[in-house]
Each structure stands twice: as structure tokens, then as C-alpha cells.
Structure of RNA polymerase, sigma-24 subunit, ECF subfamily protein:
Amino acid sequence: MKSSFADDVVDLLPNLRRYAFVLSRSLDVADDLVQQTCEKAFANRGSYARGTNLSAWLLRIMRNTWIDRVRRDRTRGESIDIADRPDAIFTDGARDTETHLMLGTVAHALQDLPEDQREIIVMICVEELSYKEAAATLGIPIGTVMSRLARARTNLASRLDLN
């Protein structure tokens, strides 16, 4: 009984998978490569000359498919699995833009504050110094730090319409 083209290809699947793994060094990529090879083989089965070495023909298709994939990947750049970048999974473009604009607005409002208020806001809120550390850095009493900070926060909130 004469075997069909499909049966002959199925019989060669283990060989194809082995060769695909040798090329790709990854089981997932190897499985994809075998599938692409089979798709191309069935799509172009009319160009296969019956009686010639089917294994060699399939391996040639696979090798050419692999070369095309490597070339495509080189021009595409590095591919990173999304599981390796948890910070990139849930990004909200609108929220990121809004945050960026708000930070710009705050930076401008901060620049408009008097120097003593701007200085104390940066030390306490940005540099996260304690009141005692800020007082020692500026050479002023802690009470002065607290009152400047209160005035700076009030002034900043009014400039940002947060009152």
C-alpha cells in the first residue's frame, strides 16, 4: 500500500523536532519551527518530487525558515518576555501622561515659591530629611523649620489649586 504525503511527514516529525531543537536550542521555538516547516511543506507539496528524499526536503525547508527567522529577529531587535518585565504589564498611557504633566506643574509651582520655602520643601519632602536634620543643615531652630514648611505647603497648595 502506498503511503500518503501526510503520513510520510508525520513519520518524520521526531527527526524534524530534533533538528529544530539543534537550531533553536529552545523547545518552544523548536515546536514553532516544526509547525512552520510543516505548513510550508503542505502549502508547497506540489514542488516535492515523489521518490526523492522527503527528509532532506523538509530539513531544507526548516533550515531556510530558521535563517529567515534569525534575519527577521536581528532587524526587529531584542525580544523580552513580558513575564520578565512586570513593570511593563499594566501601564496606563493616559495615567502616565497625566502624572508627567502634574509633576511638571508642581515643579513650576515649586520654582515660584520663595527661596526659603522651596528649600525647606525640598529638604523635607524630596530629600526626606527629618525636621531636626533640616534645622541642623540650615542652622535654624526646629520651630522655624516647621513654620516655613507649613507656609510652603499652604503656598504650594494654593498655586496648584488644591485648597
Q: What stands out?
A: The CA atoms of residues 135 and 143 lie 9 Å apart. The longest helix spans residues 54-76. The chain has a mean pLDDT of 87.
